[in-house]
Design a protein that fits this description.
Length: 756
């Protein structure tokens, strides 16, 4: 199959199929003549191959981010001016067998540099080294620079200057093993620089990546294009220039300042013919382009950039929150790059992607969509993708999540939610409106944080703890919970009715969290923000994303691993700090069972208190492994003494009782409110099942054995009569709610003593 045939097949379907990523090209031998070379981003190699083939390139060798090819000078010039997905086009100057820095210098010196560069011009040298006698690219570039400068000085009597930006001649060295290949950059700068970008915005999308995504999606100018989170407008401007027939390098070429325009063998007449052809191709762009963003400053920058590109009249810009954007046609393509990375914390970014998915379902029936998302957040959109395409956005490993929002599925699947949303809107409308200004709220919030931080900081140091609750919905208007874990904050918003729109709430929340980080002198990237929703029956712990930020915190001389990013909870329930201390005080010489063991913090406390043996039971391998790490970090590594068992708590007790195994002396029961698992025959419901469970515990408990039972279920109703014949019962809630918890209803707890 030829390159042309394979690339033609790529564009046949609704979403063109992307071939597998190519492998890196093998290093060439020194006696192999070097080829013209084009470089691009990960995932765009086949699109670049298509472009080069259309421009007359032959003998294409496709590797990771690199394509080697053969072509005329016209092919070279057109590649620089017309390629949308190339980053660099390199023309070889020679390939040399080298074995030392000295031989590299001599080989580079063999080129007649006096013909390539005048003393009044400037030079830049880039280098890549791989498995060679030089292991640092800067040193390799220095050797090449010295050889070039000395060659120009020998020919002209003066040396040229080095210039990092806008150099007259930009060279690129590829040193692999003992083979050195030297190129000159035919563009003189990165080809993503189209010449139309105006102003600076945070983390702008590369024009090359935008063009690649447009190509991967199979977009054509006849298809309406919408970017509801446009930032500087890269997607729509790049697409509009395509529709206008504007070659990506034309604006640069009009200045004729860099690249092949300054080569000593520059073909002026050929370049003139090519530029004349490209100018004649430009036209008024056809198609529909709509871009929107909440920030009026970036919209202004996008409009200015579109003006410079000559396509301002074709693009409709608006300043709106994306959830307020409604497509104006029945079909089209949504392409967007929501904020993440430097622009937004992980937790907030995940929430944005989930809302983007909800907006697509609600507003974009009949449309296709492509969302660029970091790999760890790819599942946050909440929609089944048509395809995920591997791409890189700078250093960030990303996926282009491609979706088709079908009308019938949307209307059938989500019609029931509409009434629910309307009902919710009515409740919100009926809620008493907030009378105080945001600045007043922030002022009170800052003062409360300052007071709590001073008090609890001193208290925590005396207690020997690193993790504590700093703010617990202290101000009713600000229903946040903020926990401090060393130099990190873990914040959660508890959903409740309010009178703000979605846009207003985003602004409100951003201002509140900015105030928190500023008041506490915490860097914004050390904050994890989550939203807690009312847990429904059948719910269970779910992984939030694939990133992991885990470290250990101290508590009364013990170490516990916490993970602030991956799950709704962190792995350490701070409200059970006093209960852990009670278990530690009662555990000496006893056999201890930790049911619903989670990450094993009660097991660690019992082991530290001198427990003879501990047994931790949980259905999750993830949490059992976490428990193992917690035990090991505190020196409890004997797995025979500290057993970890994957099992359902009820089944474990049932089978153990039947086998007549030795009873436990102390049992900790801290179950979830609801739980569902494929291994369980029946869902767990704490209100329904607690009495039966505690009776089963009694059947596996020694005489006068101790049970610590607790629950975070606010509506829990404890019926003492159900267990009075089995246990002496003492409620311990007032003893187990720690000082840093303002809310005394955070949990309820009991201590049971088995009757003789």
């Amino acid at each position: 199959m030829t390159v042309h045939e394979s690339l033609a097949d790529v564009m046949e379907s609704l979403f063109p199929e992307v071939p597998l990523a190519p492998r890196p090209l093998l290093p060439s031998e020194p006696d192999t003549p070097p080829s013209l070379t084009a470089r691009t981003l990960d995932g765009l190699e086949w699109l670049l191959a298509k472009e080069l083939s259309a421009l007359g390139a032959t003998n294409l060798r496709i590797g990771r981010r690199t394509i080697e090819f053969t072509g005329s000078k016209e092919t070279l010039y057109r590649a620089v001016l017309e390629s949308r997905v190339a980053i660099r086009i390199l023309e070889p100057l020679g390939r040399f067998a080298v074995s030392s820095p000295e031989s590299l210098y001599q080989s580079i010196s063999s080129v007649d540099w006096a013909t390539h560069l005048r003393p009044t011009q400037t030079l830049r040298v880039d280098a890549r080294v791989h498995d060679s006698f030089i292991d640092h690219s800067l040193y390799a570039s220095q050797v090449v620079k010295d050889a070039v400068v000395d060659g120009v000085r020998a020919g002209h009597g003066r040396r040229p200057n080095v210039q990092l930006h806008g150099a007259s001649l930009r060279l690129s060295l590829h040193l692999a093993g003992e083979t050195a290949t030297l190129f000159r950059d035919a563009a003189g700068q990165s080809l993503h620089q189209r010449g139309w970008r105006k102003g600076k915005v945070e983390a702008p999308l590369s024009e090359v990546l935008a063009a690649g995504i447009l190509g991967i999606s199979g977009w054509q100018p006849s298809e309406p294009l919408l970017d509801p989170l446009c930032g500087s407008g890269t997607f729509v401007i790049e697409a509009a220039t395509q529709a206008a027939g504007l070659a990506p390098g034309l604006l640069r070429a009009r200045k004729r300042k860099q690249g092949f325009f300054r080569f000593h063998d520059f073909d002026r007449e050929l370049a003139k013919e090519i530029l004349f052809d490209l100018e004649n191709r430009t036209k008024t762009p056809s198609g529909t382009f709509h871009a929107s963003d909440l920030d009026p400053a970036v919209i202004q920058i996008a409009e200015q950039s579109a003006q410079l590109a000559g396509v301002a009249g074709a693009i409709k810009f608006s300043c709106n929150h994306f959830e307020a954007v409604t497509p104006e046609s029945e079909h089209g393509l949504v392409l967007t790059n929501p904020p993440y990375g430097e622009r937004l914390t992980q937790a907030r970014a995940g929430a944005v992607f989930r809302r983007v998915g909800d907006w697509l379902k609600k507003s974009c029936a009949g449309w296709r969509a492509g969302v660029l998302v970091p790999v760890e957040l790819a599942k946050s959109i909440g929609l089944k993708p048509h395809r995920r395409v591997v791409l890189s956005n700078g250093p960030i490993d990303c996926r282009l999540v491609e979706l088709v929002v079908h009308k019938d599925k949307v209307s059938g699947t989500f019609a029931g939610n509409k009434a629910s949303e309307e009902s919710k809107a009515e409740r919100f409308t009926s809620t008493k409106k907030t009378s105080r200004s945001l600045s007043d709220q922030i002022g009170d919030f800052r003062r409360r944080l300052a007071k709590r931080s001073r008090h609890l900081g001193r208290w925590a140091r005396k207690q020997g703890i690193d993790a504590y609750r700093l703010y617990d919905r202290d101000i009713p208007e600000i229903p946040l919970v903020i926990d401090r874990y060393g130099d990190w904050l873990h914040a959660a918003e508890y959903e409740r009715p309010h009178d703000r729109t979605a846009i207003e709430h985003d602004v409100w929340l951003d201002r509140i969290m900015e105030a928190a980080t500023d008041q506490l002198s915490i860097a914004p990237d050390r904050v994890f923000f989550k939203v807690r929703r009312r847990q429904r029956a059948g719910g269970q712990y779910e992984k939030m994303d694939d990133r992991s930020v885990a470290f250990s915190v101290s508590e009364h001389g013990l170490k516990f691993e916490v993970n602030l990013s991956d799950y709704l909870d962190t792995g350490l329930f701070l409200d059970h700090r006093q209960t852990r201390a009670m278990v530690r005080g009662d555990a000496a010489g006893r056999s201890v069972l930790n049911l619903f063991g989670y990450t094993g913090s009660f097991s660690v406390a019992a082991a530290a208190g001198g427990a003879e043996v501990t047994t931790t039971v949980d259905l999750s391998n993830t949490y059992l492994e976490w428990a193992r790490r917690n035990l090991a970090e505190n020196g409890f590594v004997d797995r025979r003494q500290h057993a970890l068992l994957r099992d359902d708590a009820r089944e474990f007790l049932k089978h153990r009782g039947r086998r007549g195994e030795s009873p436990f002396d102390l049992v900790v029961v801290d179950p979830p409110t609801f739980s569902r698992s494929t291994r369980q025959q029946q869902d767990w419901d704490v209100q329904r099942d607690y009495a039966d469970l505690l009776q089963a515990v009694a059947n596996n408990l020694s005489k006068r054995g101790v049970v610590y039972f607790s629950t975070n279920y606010r509506r829990f109703r404890f019926d003492e009569k159900l267990l009075a014949h089995t246990y002496d019962i003492y409620e311990t809630t007032h003893k187990t709610v720690p000082e840093d918890f303002r809310n005394a209803r955070i949990h309820r707890s009991w201590k049971f003593l088995k009757k003789s």
